[in-house]
Design goal:
By secondary structure, this protein is an alpha+beta fold. It is 24% helix and 31% strand. The chain has helices at residues 273-278, 281-292, 334-344, 358-375, 380-390, 393-397, 411-428, 430-443, 451-462, 467-475; strands at residues 2-3, 47-48, 66-78, 83-94, 98-104, 109-115, 118-119, 121-125, 128-132, 142-151, 155-158, 162-168, 173-176, 196-205, 209-211, 215-222, 225-236, 243-246, 248-255, 258-265, 300-305, 312-314, 321-323, 350-351, 448-449. It is globular and about 65 Å long.
C-alpha cells in the first residue's frame, strides 16, 4: 500500500505504497472442495468454529475451523438506490469437526443460507454470520455454502484505523481497504491467512464499468443492465479484493500472453498523468520481474479513482488501485513500482499475521528505491542515507517488526522496513541478497509467511547468522548504526 501524506488510513483502508502473505509452502492446494460425504458421526464430537483467526492484532478478524478454496460472488448494484443484492458461494474444507461456523459480513441482510444444498440456520452477531448446518461437518471433508443477501452496503470504520470497504460514489461505488473491507459486500473468512480463488460477477446499470480482480471474462447486457465477469485463479487474501463501479476510460492490451486491463476515472482529464503513469504498468512489471523473478499472476492493470475519501494506493491483486492525488504533480511511476512490487511481496507471498506487515511494505518501499535507481533519478544508497538521516524519533522508537495496531501503517513500517532490507543487502552482499529476494518469491508463491520464515531464508541463502541485524532493525527501539558497504 502507498499512502498519500499524513498517516495512512488503516483499518479498513490501507494499501500498498507508502506515498501501500498463512505459513504454507509454495503452492498450497486450492482446488475446489467437494461436498461433504455422509458418514457415521455418532462417535465424533462436533463444536462451533472459532469466531476469529487467532491474530493478536485483530482477534475478531477471520474465523477458524475451515479453509476456503473458492468464492463465487454474484452481485447486482444500483447506484441510484444504493441497493446491493448478492449470492456468494463458498467452497471450503472443514479443518475441525464443526457443528457451526462463522463468516464475516458487515451490515446487509441475509435472506437464506444452504450448506451442501440443504437449508441451514443462520444468525447474526455484530459483523459475524453464524451458520449452523443441518448436520455436522466432518474434518477433512469439503462443503459448499450458499448465502443470499441484500441491503445498502456501508463502509467500516474504527477510531484507530480509519474507514474502508464499500463506498457509494457519485456515479457508482468503490469497495477497497486494508486490513478489512471485503466483508462489506460479501460473506468471507476475512483474514489473509485463508487465501482463496475468486470468480466475480457484477451487474450494474448499462453504461457503467464494473472492475474487479484478475482476468476479465467478458461482459453481457440484458435490458438496462450489464454484467461484468472477472476471475482470479491464484489464491488471494480477502483484503486484496476490489470493486470499482462507475464511468471509466478503459484501456486493454495483451502482454506476454496475459491480458492488461486498466481504467482511469472519466472525471479526470484524458491523457493526463494518471493515464500516462498507468500506461507504464507492464514496463515497471518487467523491470521488477528481472529482480524478483517471474510475475506471479495471470493479468496486469490498474485503476485510478477520483474520490477524495481515498488518499492511498492499494495493491489489490493483479489490478492495483491508485488515488488520483498521486498524480497531481505529474507522472508518478514510483507509486506504480510500489504497488506492483506488492504483487510479489504481499499478494503472492502473503503475511500470516498482521504484525508482519513490514514484509509487504518494507520490500515494496525498497522496490521504489530500486526503480528510482533504474530510471536514474537517484541511487539506492543515496535514498537509504537520506531516509536514515530524515527518520524521526518515532520511527526509531517504533519497531517495524512489532509496530502495534496504532502504527501498523506508520512510517517505521515503510521507511525503517525499507532500510532493514538495505541493511540486509549490505550485510550479505548483492549476490546473496538478490538470490534471497527471488527465492522468497519462488518458495512462498501463493502461500503465507512470517518474519521468522524470512530471517531463516536469509540465513540459509547467505550462510550468515543475521539475528543481531534483524533484532536491531526490526525490533529495537533505538537507531541502529549506519551500515557501511564493504
Amino acid at each position: 500500500m502507498a499512502r498519500r501524506g499524513g498517516r495512512r488510513r488503516l483499518g479498513l483502508l490501507a494499501c500498498g505504497t507508502l506515498l501501500l502473505a498463512g505459513c504454507g509452502s509454495a503452492e498450497p492446494d486450492r482446488s475446489a472442495a467437494a461436498p461433504s460425504e455422509p458418514g457415521p458421526t455418532a462417535s465424533r464430537s462436533f463444536a462451533p468454529g472459532a469466531a476469529g483467526a487467532g491474530d493478536s492484532y485483530f482477534p475478531s478478524y477471520g474465523n477458524g475451523g475451515y479453509d476456503v478454496a473458492n468464492y463465487t460472488i454474484k452481485v447486482r448494484y444500483d447506484p441510484a438506490t444504493d441497493k446491493l443484492t448478492g449470492t456468494t458461494t463458498v467452497r471450503a474444507t472443514a479443518t475441525a469437526d464443526l457443528s457451526a461456523f462463522n463468516l464475516d459480513l458487515a451490515g446487509l441482510t441475509v435472506r437464506a443460507v444452504t450448506v451442501d444444498g440443504v437449508a441451514a440456520r443462520h444468525a447474526r452477531a455484530d459483523d459475524e454470520l453464524v451458520v449452523t448446518p443441518a448436520t455436522g461437518l466432518t474434518s477433512g471433508n469439503g462443503f459448499v455454502t450458499e448465502i443470499r443477501y441484500d441491503g445498502r452496503p456501508a463502509a467500516l470504520s474504527t477510531e484507530a484505523l480509519g474507514e474502508g470497504g464499500w463506498l457509494h460514489t457519485t456515479d457508482g461505488a468503490i469497495a477497497l481497504g486494508q486490513p478489512e473491507s471485503a466483508s462489506t459486500w460479501f460473506p468471507v473468512n476475512d483474514h489473509p491467512s485463508d487465501k482463496a480463488t475468486y470468480d466475480v460477477e457484477i451487474t450494474v446499470p448499462k453504461g457503467l464499468t464494473a472492475v474487479s480482480n484478475g482476468v476479465p471474462k467478458g461482459k453481457s447486457t440484458a435490458g438496462d443492465w450489464t454484467t461484468w465477469r472477472w476471475a482470479e485463479g491464484s489464491p488471494m487474501a480477502s483484503y486484496l479484493s476490489m470493486v470499482a463501479i462507475g464511468k471509466f476510460r478503459v484501456t486493454t492490451a495483451e502482454h506476454k500472453g496475459r491480458p492488461v486491463f486498466s481504467a482511469v476515472a472519466a472525471a479526470l482529464p484524458e491523457g493526463g498523468a494518471p493515464d500516462r503513469s498507468i500506461a507504464r504498468t507492464v514496463e515497471v512489471a518487467d523491470y521488477l520481474e528481472s529482480i524478483f523473478g517471474p510475475y506471479p499472476f495471470d493479468a496486469y492493470g490498474g485503476v485510478v479513482v477520483a474520490d477524495d475519501r481515498i488518499r492511498y494506493a492499494l495493491e489489490t491483486q493483479a489490478r492495483p488501485v491508485y488515488a488520483a492525488s498521486f498524480f497531481r504533480r505529474g507522472d508518478n511511476t514510483d507509486v506504480v513500482a510500489h504497488e506492483l512490487a506488492h504483487q510479489w511481496y504481499g499478494d503472492s507471498v502473503s503475511i500470516q499475521r498482521w504484525q508482519d506487515i513490514w514484509l509487504n511494505e518494507g520490500l515494496a518501499t525498497y522496490a521504489e528505491w530500486l526503480w528510482a535507481e533504474h530510471t536514474g533519478s537517484s541511487t539506492v544508497q543515496r535514498t537509504f542515507e537520506q531516509t536514515y538521516a530524515a527518520a524521526s524519533g518515532l520511527v526509531w522508537r517504533t519497531p517495524p517488526g512489532k509496530p502495534g495496531v496504532e502504527n501498523l501503517f506508520g512510517r517505521s513500517v515503510y521507511d525503517r522496513g525499507g532500510m532493514t532490507v538495505h541493511a540486509l543487502r549490505v550485510a550479505v552482499g548483492d549476490a546473496a541478497f538478490f538470490t534471497i529476494l527471488k527465492t522468497w518469491a519462488a518458495e512462498r508463491k501463493n502461500g503465507n509467511a512470517t518474519t521468522a520464515d524470512f530471517v531463516a531464508l536469509a540465513e540459509r541463502v547467505s550462510g550468515k547468522k543475521l539475528d543481531k541485524l534483524f533484532d536491531a532493525w526490526l525490533f529495537g527501539t533505538e537507531r541502529p548504526a549506519l551500515p557501511k558497504a564493504k
